[in-house]
Design goal:
295 residues, alpha/beta, 51% helix
Amino acid sequence: MKITVVDSHSAMKRVLTAPAAERPALLRSMLETVKEMYRHAPGEVDLVALHLQSSGFPLDRDEERCLAALEALAAADAWGRLRRALEGAASLLEAAAPELEFPDITFLLVLGDPGDPLFMETSLGVTGFGGISGQILVTLWPFPENLARLEATALHELHHNVRFGPGGVVWDPATVTVGEHVVSEGLADAFARQVVGDDLGRTRIGVPHLGDDAVFAKLASGFDVTGMHNFPAWVHGDAIAERLGVEPVGLPTGAGYAVGNRLADAYLAATGQTAAQAVHAPAADVIATALGRRG
């Protein structure tokens, strides 16, 4: 598995210091490095528009704030840390499951939008997209907590990339279940925790609800709900669902991550596997084992 971490520090600095009229083209050039993650989208994707809609850094305001954040990432050796963490974790996955086929991966780190309360407050300044084999995009604001968890964030997305990669779990947007998404989040967190420990390895938005049995029961009632369009409500929670125009179902932000961690922990404890070994574990098996339904 070859890992390429894009030098987005230089690319973003060029965007943020360029005349306003030149910024969209420069941003598009950077985003082209991961355009294949949208290969299943119908029609041509406007990469710049999608970046802005997804809480990526703005092109018409907050330049100084974003430049300062960019330098904070550089001072923290973000790109070097990402490269070392991803390469080490790739070797760990390959050793744990040598029979699997592993994709080559391009990783892109971008700044988020400091003027977007949903991103900065609800999502705690970090989102990731690693479910399309070969491409990973992380959008981040360098809060101290996010800098501390930089490796964990990357490893979480790496686990997704391998899980849904060649020969792995098939993700059909029309038929995939809430249970599959929740399990994948739990196993990805378990993998990050395997490498960096529990304190830093969990996705932050799920931590407040880890012990909430009512949240677990509510989400478990939706494990069989199908269709990717339902996931913001069931996995990410009401606030994010509302932003995306999806009907809320009464769940807090990060519910799917909290429940996924509990499912993954129970499954790994019962089977004696590591999260690296369980990268392709069927969601139905994880859920059945965690709920004590296996005979």
